[in-house]
Write a structure and sequence with these properties.
This protein has 649 residues and is of the alpha+beta class. Helices cover 46% and strands 19% of the residues.
């Protein structure tokens, strides 16, 4: 039968699985490969586009700023009359400050700038930040600088002496390009900036040269169609490096000038030696922004119409299309693995179908052996799942019924022990006194009779206390507490707490009170005085009985707009955590039930197991809540929360 099952069931399923997987694998590979290829190329292109847009946008922005400055009419006036030089200096100074030049107070022997135009107090300042445009020059048609501003200052002595070595710009590439009517944009290179040393005593004017990596931007100054001069401004190149991606990358990004010289690069520099292999094929590109296959490398470039720079990106084909190769290998592995495990899967499916039945059988055996409340996981929503759910409900209900019966038996046993102990003691005294009178041993008027009579009174008092507490418990549990007189539904919190605390202080003087609400005396709560007094008395009774005489008891009262909170804390022996949920049940005692004392305030003794039950019942009766926080050996805190009465009109 096993052979027939393999032949008729397993083998056809495996064959069908193989055919289905092969077809799905091929379709999935072709579809996924196309998507991965498109995504890889989009990422490749988006990287270069982001760098290009960032650099091109910044360059255009800065060139626009320079063009706007050059359009200022002051340059036309200066071209017509040299005495307008100070006005030009001031305009350039304001331009530099408006674009990030920050000056500060000088330091002796430190570098400072020269004075600027006719502005008082602007020269001799420390350079804190050079800004976007550290220097500017206006060059005449003869190639001699007629005006310049370096970092907010201008050394006019250069023009007074006519130092050709310092002022000639005739042979610079930027001057020649601008004179031809074209915009010149250089690459980052060392550029001299002229400052001076600050000496407030000798007022030194000696030039000091610093060198910074700057870009040179030069353009012709045209008046109408005539070129009147050349305007040159240097700008900081940090925006180029900031545009390049940071950290390791599978790409290499290059920024080169029109002659192929590298301006900046970033990314996977291990690709750098391989670029020379593709340099010839790279130049055969017909279209910008298109990926070109250069052998082992994929290449794309974009050329800036403003600067003439090329933004180029290189990446190994295996890195860019690596996900496609990985997908192909993974599909093959998945197909082989699927065929290999199909037989095992069928076996596991059958086993899974039988597992709920096995679990039900095992759980039934555990219940039969006395382990009630067994619950098994519902794994499906089918008929077996419904059977599992019904079984769990039956098991839980049986456990709850068993626990309830056990609890009833326990409470009944506790009640019998308490009544046996509490009633027997005063009953023995009453019966003894009766026997003495009946036998004529105790007669009125002698000392023995008086002593026995006092004992009889004490026993009767104990009976009264016991009956009173049992009666209160009964009325609380049935909700039949008496509420007489006008306003019986409410009481003044201050008066009730004070009465209850003063009564308890007769037995423990060291009870402290802490009132958190400044209007405490005016607060009324939606609870009768007798009920609230009963709650506080029972709480203080427990605190006194279960803490040593030298330990303090604290009563803390606070109020919100809707509720009043009363905390009663003692530093006694505390309640073990496992009993916190049960201590509010009637007749439940953590201590031995035979250690009870009828006296409500006797330290060290037990009680009837009714105090917390009474408190819980009263608080619930008046829509309040009781929270018990306690640990064995760390004392106990009762948090009683009751609603405030609605304000009267």
């Amino acid at each position: 039968m096993t052979a027939k099952l393999k032949t008729k069931f397993l083998l056809p399923i495996l064959l069908l699985q193989f055919v289905a997987l092969a077809a799905l694998g091929y379709i999935g590979y072709r579809f996924s490969a196309n998507i991965l290829r498109e995504n890889a190329e989009k990422q490749f292109k988006s990287t270069i586009d982001a760098v290009y847009d960032a650099i091109e946008g910044t360059l255009n922005n800065r060139i626009t700023k320079i063009e706007l400055l050059l359009k200022n009419p002051v340059f036309i006036k200066y071209n017509a009359g040299a005495h307008y030089k100070s006005d030009v200096d001031i305009e350039v100074f304001n331009f530099q400050k408006g674009n990030g030049l920050v000056l500060g107070e000088p330091e002796v022997k430190g570098l400072v700038n020269y004075p600027i135009g006719l502005l008082p107090g602007e020269g001799g300042k420390k350079i804190i930040s050079a800004g976007e445009f550290p220097s500017e020059e206006y060059v005449g048609l003869d190639g001699m600088a007629k005006q310049h501003v370096y970092l907010g200052g201008s050394n006019d002595a250069n023009f007074e002496t006519g130092d050709k070595f310092k002022l000639t710009r005739k042979n610079t590439p930027w001057f020649k390009t601008a004179m031809s009517g074209q915009l010149y944009l250089g690459k980052p290179e060392d550029t001299k900036l002229f400052l001076r040393e600050y000496d407030p005593v000798s007022i030194s004017q000696q030039e000091k040269i610093i060198t910074e990596k700057l870009l040179t931007i030069a353009m012709p100054h045209k008046i109408g169609e005539r070129i009147a001069g050349v305007f040159m401004v240097t700008t900081t190149p940090q925006f180029i490096y900031e545009a390049l991606p940071k950290g390791d990358s599978k790409y290499l990004l290059l920024i080169t000038d029109g002659q192929g010289n590298t301006i900046a690069k970033a990314g996977n520099e291990s690709i750098d030696p391989e670029i020379t292999k593709t340099s010839e094929t790279k130049m055969r590109h017909k279209k910008q922004g298109v990926i070109f296959d250069g052998g082992d490398l994929l290449v794309m470039y974009r050329s800036s119409p403003v600067s003439g720079w090329n933004v180029e990106i290189f990446g190994r084909e295996t890195d860019i299309y690596g996900a496609i190769y990985l997908l192909r290998n993974n599909i093959f592995i998945v197909m082989v693995s699927s065929i290999s495990v199909m037989g095992l899967i069928i076996f596991l499916i059958v086993k899974k179908l039988l597992k709920p039945i096995y679990n039900l059988t095992s759980a039934s055996d555990r219940i039969a052996n006395g382990e009630l409340g067994v619950v098994i996981a519902k794994e499906n929503d089918d008929e077996i799942g419904s059977l599992t759910e019904s079984f769990n409900k039956m098991s839980v209900s049986t456990k709850q019924m068993h626990d309830r019966i056990s609890r009833i038996n326990f409470v009944r046993q506790q009640l019998l022990q308490i009544i046996s102990h509490e009633l027997r003691t005063p009953l023995n005294a009453i019966v003894g006194f009766y026997d003495l009178i009946n036998d004529g041993i105790a007669k009125p008027g002698n000392d023995d009779f008086d002593d026995c009579f006092k004992g009889l009174g004490s026993s009767i008092d104990k009976y009264k206390v016991l009956v009173e507490r049992l009666t209160k418990t009964s009325t609380v549990m049935t909700g039949e507490m008496s509420e007489e007189g006008p306003g019986a539904e409410t009481c003044r919190l201050y008066d009730t707490v004070a009465i209850a605390v003063n009564e308890a202080r007769k037995h423990r003087p060291c009870i402290e009170t802490n009132i958190a609400d400044p209007f405490f005396e005016d607060i009324e709560i939606a609870c009768p005085m007798d009920a609230l007094k009963l709650v506080i008395n029972e709480a203080l009774s427990n605190a006194i009985k279960y803490s040593e005489e030298e330990k303090k008891i604290r009563v803390t009262v606070s109020a919100s707009s809707s509720h009043v909170s009363i905390e009663i804390h003692d530093d006694g022996e505390g309640i073990p955590e496992e009993y916190i949920e049960e201590v509010t049940m009637p007749f439940f005692e953590v201590k031995d039930s035979m250690l009870h004392f009828t006296s409500r305030y006797k330290p060290g003794g037990g009680g009837l197991g009714l105090g917390l039950s009474i408190i819980s019942g009263v608080v619930k009766r008046y829509q309040g809540s009781l929270e018990i926080k306690s640990k064995s050996g760390d004392g106990t805190s009762l948090f009683i929360r009751l609603p405030r009465s609605s304000p009267t009109v």
